[in-house]
Amino acid sequence: MSKGVLGVGCSxxxxxxxxxxSELDNLPFKKNHEFINSEVTQAMRSYKDRYRYLKLVSDExxxxxxxxxxxxxxxxxxxxxxxxxLFEDGxxxxxxxxxxxxxxxxxxxxxxxxxxxxxxxxxxxxLKKIENTGxxxxxxxxxxxxxxxxxxxxxxxxxRHFDITYDGETxxxxxxxxxNDEYNLSIRSDFYKKGYQKNDEHWNKKGxxxxxxxxxxxxxxxxxx
Length: 225
Fold this sequence. Notes:
single chain; alpha/beta; Rossmann fold; two-stranded antiparallel sheet; 6 strands; globular
């Protein structure tokens, strides 16, 4: 596949904390999770970019990827990027064959949409425009409110959404993956016994691999690959 994979979302898609697994100097470990932008060097960013799920998926598809995800992102920020920031970065929709849209917590920048239904409807409008250029769009959700309680999401995103299955358990959101330390999918599960990142629920390397595999399974199910 010569066209790329595009990803938008929040810190999970950005790859927050993956740099902790490097041997780089001055890693910004804290007792509890705290992101201070100035403490994350370019080398740390390059390292985490190598191990986030977007890279793993693009490797599986034998292509390249671009991320518009923000650390601390929201649906509004993702949508604004897809409407304008992507073009400012020098890309067009037709440069991509796949868009992975990661829904973050619905309350972030909630005032931009006033209601949850409006947030989802406006997102659907943007994604339909992208799909009309030949890009496949798939979605996953961080928290349970959107996929479990929004009838609008269930209707408009049924063909895009994929559930999260791990260790025999299936849910329509991925938050549960990092709430159980026995799964060992979070940064917290790797470092809390050492006194670091005690509440850090971002995915570790294993977590990103789990998400990547689920995406590949979705694409196979949809006959994309």
